[in-house]
């Protein structure tokens, strides 16, 4: 891997690399399936250094990683986590992706600490972030509360877009079906039943957005009380989570369209954004 990382320096433009990151904490603040996130400092501002985790029998495809990183670097939107650069100094034998540190944490921790009065505003911002990705011919692929951060201005910010793309496109030899089961559309769980192949699509993002609507209202993943196998069975059988307390009739009606079995029957993300414009909490 050290040899491959040395080649990486010549593959990317010099401007992609960050040097001068200081004060990296000894232990990660967060850990996930594909990496650990450390808090550090860059140009006197806090940053997140994501150390990518490698697996046995996984081959790193640098040309694909190069293409995807170019795309992420050019994604500029208020509700998309910015890409600051690549760090090869803090962990010499690991690739690290650097982004701004979000002090407010995930949307779930933010709502727990500040209440749920602005859930619909945050959902509207999430939908706009997904719309931007789809307009650039990209899907998020792992849309859920843990991958939605809160900006300093208390707006939503989609994260782990770059990492989800890397895990799907540039790591060959690993399971292409890795993902977050509780937010996974039925065509991803059982693609043969629906006559297709396992492919994350804009329609599977819309399904996941419906699950996020429930998650942000309840503070819990959909089907959280079920084991993963039981949740898989419920999803492919057409069962869906119950209506959360406080969700308006209109939003609940929309959510039920977002997660229908047939991907073609789900609305496009443009319609989802339009659905989220109204004040979702109807007058008593």
What do these coordinates show?
With 284 residues, this protein is α+β, with helices and mostly antiparallel strands. The protein has two domains: 2-60 and 82-100, Phosphorylase Kinase, domain 1 (2-Layer Sandwich), CATH 3.30.200; 107-275, Transferase(Phosphotransferase), domain 1 (Orthogonal Bundle), CATH 1.10.510.10. It is built from ten helices and nine strands. The strands form three sheets. A five-stranded antiparallel sheet has the order 1-2-3-6-5, with no helix packed on it. Strands 4-9 form a two-stranded antiparallel ribbon. A hairpin with a 2-residue loop joins strand 1 and strand 2. Helix 2 (62-74) packs antiparallel against helix 5 (161-170) and helix 4 (119-135) packs antiparallel against helix 10. It is globular and about 50 Å long. The termini are far apart. The relative contact order is 0.12. Residues 55-59, 166-178 and 280-284 have low confidence and may be disordered.
Summarize this entry quickly.
This protein is of the alpha+beta class and 284 residues long. Helices cover 37% and strands 13% of the residues.
Please tag this protein with its features:
284 residues; 2 domains; alpha+beta; disordered C terminus; Phosphorylase Kinase, domain 1; Transferase(Phosphotransferase), domain 1; five-stranded antiparallel β-sheet; 10 helices; globular
